[in-house]
What we know:
Elements: H1 7-12, E1 15-20, E2 25-30, E3 36-41, E4 47-51, E5 55-62, E6 67-75, H2 76-83, E7 86-90, E8 93-100, E9 105-112, E10 116-124, H3 126-143, H4 178-189, E11 195-198, E12 202-207, E13 212-217, E14 222-227, E15 252-259, E16 266-272, E17 275-281, E18 292-293
Antiparallel strand pairs: 1-2, 3-4, 4-5, 5-6, 7-8, 8-9, 9-10, 11-12, 12-13, 13-14, 15-16, 16-17, 17-18
Amino acid sequence: MKNPFNLSDIKRTIFLIALFFSIQTIAFSPLPEVPPLKLFKDFLANVHYISTKEKAFQFLYDEQNSRIAFYHGKTLDSLQAFVNPFIFKMADRLYFQEKLASGFGTAFGYYEKSQGKKNIRTVINTKKITQQGDDQSFYQKWNGNIGEENYFSKPSEINEPAEFNFSKGFQSSKRFEENETRAHQFEFYKTIYPVIKIGDENIAFFNFICDTIEVLNKDGNILHSSPIIFHKKIKATANSAYSINLSNSDWHWGSEIITDESTREVYTLFLKNGMVKVQRIDLETGKLRSGTVLPFPFPEKIKIL
């Protein structure tokens, strides 16, 4: 492909370079606003370029002219406010997921032109809400609240705007030692409810409250459910009913579910001393397939393509 820019232009300009492997084409484009911050992909797989001024520009590839174009400049917060509730599109429906009870619960469903908004499933982890109340009482008595603001919200404010964003984990406080903070992040406050599109008509819902994977059709009817234990800390033995987790006895679950964007197969991560092991989840049985340890320590932003 002939380079449309001379060398002096390239020296002075920051470019976005797009690789299209299926047609082996490389496209170059100057950025609409610099300096760059990140790229953001929405639930419809549209890519947006974000500048450090938090301006968002949708990225499009013009096949006819073999060039990159940027459209619809808007602010990052307005873009996120619009796309964040939505998780995927299936047929003519837009599926959404919402947080309930300050992140301890979730609801998901879809929008359809003929029906409007329809909820499929609502789940609230009342056990963890009770744990939070107990922990608040303990730490308030332990630390006292004279002269400083309580770190936790009051139990009566459980339905008020959350102090924590549970999808991002526990936010560190000076009151807690590092190990205590880690315990809170993994054992008490990080509640996740992945809802994943599988195939063209089905949905996988990881119901960690009930320790099950539920496979639903597009209308929300449960087709089958399977028990799961990989998210639990279980001391496995060779004769244990949980011997499937024996190979993970020295690893801890990474609280993340990732999807192969092409095959729609589902994976999860296990962590140990900076290393990451990726294991595929059998949605029919809830069991883990043999895993692969990534060859580099402390990898970030893991995706399966």
